[in-house]
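ingest -> validate -> predict -> emit
validate: passed (alphabet ok, no gaps, 183 aa)
predict: started
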Amino acid sequence: MRLFVAVFPPPEVREEASRTARRLLSDGRIRWSRPENVHLTLKFLGDVDEESLDGLRTVLKDACAAHAPFEARLAGLGAFPSARRARIIWSGVGTGSEQLRSLAANIDVALSYSGFERETRPYEPHLTLGRVRGQPVSLDLPQEAGNGLLFKIRRIELIESTLADKGPVYKSIEDFVLVGEKS
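emit:
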C-alpha cells in the first residue's frame, strides 16, 4: 500500500483555492489537481505492508494527542522549485503554519521509531494545486491569491494513494482527531 499522512481542508476551501489558481494562471501546460485531491501532506510514507497498519495507527493517534485543533489560513501562490522554474504550483499557509510544522515534525519523529526515514528537507505547509507538464515555466505569481481562506484543522488522515491514468486516487484508511490541550 502506498501511504501518506495529510490534512484535507474543507471542500469549499479546496475548490476556491483551485478555482483562484486556475483563473490567475491560465498556462495550458499546467495539469491541475482535482479539488477533491488537494491536501496538506504531513508525511509521505511510501509503500507500507498491511501488517504495519496497527502500529501506524497507534503512532498517529499518540501524535494527535499532543496537538490541539487550530485554524489555518491560505496565503498566496508559490511554485517549486521557484516561480522562474515552476514545476509545482501551490497555495501556501500563513496562519497555522507553525502548528502544521510542529505537527509534521512530531509525526516525523514518532514514525522514525517505527522504521520510517526522517525528512531531510524543512517542512513547508502547502496545498499542491497543479504540476507543469514538460519543461519548467516562468510564472508571475500573485501573492494575494487565496488569502482569507480560513479553515479549522481538527484531524489528520492516513491515506492510501493508488496511481491511475487520470491521476492519483486517494482513499482514507483512518482519521485521527487532534485532542491535545492548547498551550
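The beta strands are 2-7, 30-32, 40-47, 70-80, 88-93, 126-132, 150-153, 155-162, 169-177.
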